Amino acid sequence: MVTVGARRCVPAGLEVTLTTWLRSAGLAAIDALTTPAGRLAQQIIGTFSAYFSVTYGRQSCPIHDPTAAILLLHPEYGEYGRWSVQVELAPGLTRGATLADRRPFAANKPAPPHPPIEVATRLDLDRLLKCFVAGSGPRAPHRDSRGS
Prior knowledge:
By secondary structure, this protein is α+β, with helices and mostly antiparallel strands.
C-alpha cells in the first residue's frame, strides 16, 4: 500500500473507472445543478459526452478522475485486491498500460519484480455516482469550531 499523508493511494485502472458511465438519471441530476461546481461539471461532462457520442455512439461519459478522488475519501465504495503491478514501457499501443498478473499462483511462476500493492477492482456504482452528484451540488453553510 502506498500512502500519501494519512491517506492511502490506490490505483483504479480503466477497467474499473470505465464502469462509471453517467446514465440518464445522473446526467439529469448534473444538468439540474445551479452551483458553480455544478456548472463546471456540466461543461466538462458536456465536452466529453460530445466526444463519446461521436466516437462511441453514446451520449455520456465515464467519470475517471472524480472516481479516484471519491475512492480516496470513501474507500468503502470500492473492492480491492493485491497484486504486483508494472507499467508497460515498450513503444507501441500498450505503452503506459498498467499490468497486474491476476492468475493464481503457480509453482513455476517467478517471484513478482515488485511487491504487491492494493488495487481497486470493483466499485459500488450507486453510492459513488450519488457522491459525485452531491459533491457538485449545493454546500452546507460553513461553520467554524464555535458553531457560528
